[in-house]
Structures are given as C-alpha cells and as structure tokens.
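Q: What structure does this chain adopt?
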Amino acid sequence: MAQNSWDARLPERQPVFGVSLRRTNFRYRDSLAELIREGRLGDLGGLVRNAGFRVLEIYDRGTAGLDGPADLSPVGKGASARFQDLILKFGVPHNNGSTGGTYGFGKTAAFAYSGIGTVVYWTRCRNSEGHLEDRFIVSAFSDSYEDAGVQYTGRHWWGRLTEEGDSILPIVGEEATELGERFFETGFAPGETGTSMLILDPLVTDPDDMEDAEREPLDRHRSDAGEVERDFARRARHVIRANLWPKMIAETPASGVPMEIRLHVNGEPIDLGSPEAAVLAHWGAGLNAIRRFRAGGRNESASPTNVPITVLEIKRYDKVIGHLALVRRIPNLEIIQGHVEDDDLDPSRTDARLQRIALMRGQAELVVTTVDWVGREPFEGMDWLAVYKSADEFDQMYADAEPPAHDSWVTDGSSSEAAKIVRHTRTRVKQLITRELYPETTNEEASAPRIAMATGALSRRLGAILPAAAPTMPAVREGGGAGRRRATTCARWVVEAEPPRLISTDAAGRQRQEVEFQLSGGTEPVGTVRLSVSLLGDEGLHELVPPEELDIEWGEGLAGNGAYAHVPAGSTGVVRFSGAPRRAMRVELTAGGIDGRS
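A:
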C-alpha cells in the first residue's frame, strides 16, 4: 500500500502515508450496518453485535487520488485509470520498474487483512474536467458462488446503481464527502487530493499468538483489547521502520524527508523514531552515500561516528547495475540515542529476520528485504551493515525478479535475464564485502591456532577507524629480505562468476557442476584464475577438497592445470568439476597475475 501511495505522489509534493487503528462504538457500527445492509455476506450482520469490532484506516495525501473513469470506459494510452485499476479490476500490472509493482497484490492484501473481506474507499481526485471530485464506494471479496445457474466471482460493491441496473458506480460529490467524513477520521484539506481505505475488522492479532485459529473472524480478539492494540502498535512500528525507513531519510537537511509517515492507535500517535538516532542513522548514511555518489559527488561520505563509508559500483559486463554502500561501525564509538525499541533495526541486536544488507530498487527506494549474503560474523570490536540500490535503468530487471509481495529477489534456478542479474549481484556483493572487511589467509595460516592476516588486509581494517577526512594510507607488503618496502601500484585482478550450474549426476551421486566467469583488471595480458571447493560442515566450518578429487576441466582455449588456469584479461571462461554427493559445497574463484599478485 505504501508503494502504491508513493507511485501516485504529485510532482514537487511531499506525500503523506498514514496508518490508524481504532475501536468503534455502537453508533458507528449501526451506521456501518446501515450502509452495507444488503448483500450476500452473512458476516456483516455481526457488526452491530460485536463490541470488539475495530477498523484500520490507511490513507495518503499529496497524491493524485483514484482518478480516471469511475466506470469501465476505455482509457486512452497514457491516461490515468487508477480508479479502474484498484477498485474495478484485478491484478493490473505497473511494471515499468519505477513503480512498486501491481495494484492487484495491494488490493487483495487489504481484503485478506479484513476479517470479513470488506474495504471502504474514499478518494478525492480531479475528474476529466479538472475539477475536484469526491468518490465513495465499498467493496468486498468472498468465495465464488452459483445462483440460479449463474456463476459469480464473489466480488461485491456497494455504491450507486447505474440506470441500466447492471453495475455499481461510486457515490460522488457532496454525498460522497458526507459519507467520507462520517466513517473516516482523516479528512481532506481544501484543494487536497488523495485516497483513504477503511479495512473492516482487521486481523490485528498476531497469528502466532492466536489461541484458537478456527474461530469465526469477528471473534478473533483477545479479551484484553489494550494488549491487542499495544502489540499491533509495536509490530506496525517495526514493519514501517524496517521497510519504509528510506522515506524517513532526508537527502540534505534542507530537502525534507521524501514521505511523511504517520502511525496512530486509538487516536494516539506512535513515535516512529528519529532518523538521526540509533542504527537508523547508519542505514540512512549508507543510502545518502549512494545518493551523493550518483549525483556526481566524491566518494567521501562518513557514518554518524565519522567512519568512512565506501560506495562500490556493481558491474556486469562493464555496465553498472547497482551501487553498494558499506557502512563500517565501531560499537565502542557509538553513543546509543533514542528509545530502546529503536534497536529493532540493528542486525547485531535483533533476531535473524533482520540481516546486514538492505536491498532496494533505485527509483522506488523501498526496502525489498534484508539479506545475509556474506555469512560471516564481524570481527570483535567491529561491525558493519550495507545498502544495495539497483541502478535506475536496471530497475525493471530487479522488479521482474520480485514475487507479488515485492519482499525478495527470487531466482529459483531460472535462466531469465532478471535471475542472472540477481545471481550476479549476490555473487559480486559477497565478493566485495569479503574483500573489504575480511582479511585473506593462506591454508597454513587458517589451520594455525591464531590466524595471521595479510598486511594489506590489516591496513584496510585499521583504515576503517580513521576519520573520514584522513588521507588514505599506502598499503605495504612484506619484502623478501630484512625490513619492508612499499608495494608497487598495480591494478587489481577481478573475477566475476555466476553461481554453479548443475550439469549431470553420476551413478555414485557425484554432481557435475559448471561455473561461468569473467576476468578483468590487472596490467598484464594474461591472469591466473584459481578454483577452490570446500565442503560445508557444522557451525560454518569448511573442509577444503583436494583439487585432484574434483576432476577439474577448464573450458576450451584456457591453459588449465589442476586448480589453476591462465586466462586472457577481459575474457570469459568456464570451469567444470565434480562435487561430493549429498554435501553442501562452497565454490570460490580467485584471480591473480602470473606472478601471483592479486
């Protein structure tokens, strides 16, 4: 619903998105029962008998409202048809990448959240003549049914019957205004447009806490109404903060936040927290670092504790498909601000549902989900989080990878271009974060009681705690004799790999896998690519598989020898190997020069 409100915002206006839960009194319930007294939905008769009946009002202002034809008249190309799409049709796509997705899911979600499948709509928009017009209509979903030998869809509307008597239109004009003001608590200011939805009998009880899920919808309320509403306020606050926090982050102090978000329960405002306090300030700093980088600014952003933020380009075949902002945190430097409940966005303090990498599309700027693509705990005394934002021109690809709920990027082994981009994003983000934050070790060092880290990797870790304005320190490496020498400057070799693809399974259950990759960087015409395969064990432990047991085969044109192959710079290649049966594997490709430099 927030996505639809953002998509409908007016130019040069700050939209408002509000959520309000409240109880009803007997007069209000009598008015509702009178409004929708006719119809096939038997549950509506229980409205006046249930003192625990609530309504959930969701509204936006500073948006276009549900404009366009109020019936199913044809709409010209490029003309708005928001009323048709949301009220009269089902599952109308808006997949140009810049919008949240489809009206269909937002609509069915509202009905599914109603215990009686019924939603009231009040919208103010500009009609075809440019005049302000109020529209009021009630709609419900129920199971399909058959009556007098005719099959019906189970969709119902309450409004104004057409002269032909074959369809329902919204009530418009002054009568719509009077009805809206009677049933909704948030009205319209003079000249203001937008939409309000009233979800009847919302299922506000946490499904995990329901004592008897088999009871009728109107009885799904705990005896302690205050407990139910306090729990709803807590969960709604967290969902808004976890998914809509980018709308709470101003690009500059003078610009204001992109969207004003409000939450009320029984008329009392719920504090959503300050974007400048607690961990939300770190998430916001990561987003603003990407915003500034894309606007042509220098990569000199810093976290709230003045630790440098790194913005990295994610490329696929030399095209930028997104940007990653890596926000390093030094817990001992942080001063906890705000309320204790503001820790709900801190992946280091909350449960596993909130991960360290926030994914969002470029234009919508709403959090799709948070993920853990790295799978490593931060080093003691350090922490991190990251923001990934797709490039605007690739928004459509990422949108294609989202399910109707827009809550993940799904590949499911698909060979579509969208799935390939998501898989590449995951691989590249993991590689870059690992390179920046986790020092590389040799096999001998990893088996030692105390892990020794490469000097260059150590300098990257220590450099993270320097103030943002400090100059970058040159990297050093160990020399062959006494003392040290500065390393010569050289371009870094980079290998970008697609996830392994299953080719076949032999009689013993060994799976033949294939990995496509591309080598770039370096200053030499030929680089080295190394394949490393480990078996995953308990608690994240790995067991390195000897190369001779993998039956490694490098693709045509590559000079391969066991785990290594010489690959021309800028070229693509493939490597095949056989893994152990019924074991999870970790597959890594690393790149370097002929002389072994990375």
